[in-house]
Amino acid sequence: MNNKKQFQEYMLLIGERHDKKFSEGLIDITWKALESFSDDECIKAFNHVIKYGKFWKDILPDLLEQLEGTKEDQGELAWTEVYDAIRNVGCGQSIRFSDPVIHSAIEKMGGWIRLAQQEEADSKWNRKEFLSLYRACSRRNDHPAYLTGMYEEDNELRGFNDFIPKIIEWSNISSAKRIEYEKIKELGESGHLCPECKTRRWTKNGLCADCHMEKHGF
Fold this sequence. Notes:
Helices cover 58% and strands 4% of the residues. α3 crosses α4, α4 packs across α7 and α5 crosses α7. It is mainly alpha-helical. The strands form two sheets. A two-stranded parallel sheet has the order 1-2. Strands 3-4 form a two-stranded antiparallel sheet. The chain starts with a helix and ends with a helix. A hairpin with a 2-residue loop joins β3 and β4. The protein folds into two domains: 55 residues, no CATH class; 145 residues, no CATH class.
C-alpha cells in the first residue's frame, strides 16, 4: 500500500469502531506488512475486515487472511488463462497476457517455450509451481512485457527479424479468435504451409525462415 493517509484513516476508523487505540508499533508493523499489496487490494481488505473481521488482538491477521486469499484467487484465474493459452497457442507464438505477473511467474519456470512444451501429465505440478511463483512475483512491480515464443527466438538467432510474427494478445481475444489462432498454430501465420518443406512453421512471402535461408542465403 502506498497511500499512507488512507491507511491511517482506516486504522483510526477501525480503532474507533472497536473502542481500541492502536500503538505506534502495531501501526508501523501493519503498514510495513501491507507495502507489497496495492492500494485497491488493501482498501477491499479493510472494508471486508470492518464488516466481517474477527478482530481479537490486532487487525493484521484478518487483513493478511483477506489479502492472501485474494492473491490465491487471482493465481487460480491466471493459471486457467495460461493453461488455455498453452492448449490453443502452443510454444511457437510469442504471447502477452493482460496480467504481467503471469510473465514473471512463467519466466521463473523456464520461459513460455519450455512451459508450453510440457506434457499434459505435468500440468498438475506446473499448476502448483505457477501458483507459488505467482504469489511471490505479485510482490514485484517490474515484469517482462511479453513472453517470447519459439518462432521469434529462432528467427532472431538466425537474423530473420522481418520474419518475426506479431505478439498474440491472448487475454483480449474472443472464442472465434482462439479458433483462428489454433489454425495459425497448425498452418503458420500466413495461413498456408511452406511450399518447399511442407512444415507448419510461420511463413512469410510463401516460405518459412529455414527455406528462405536455404534458397536466398540470408
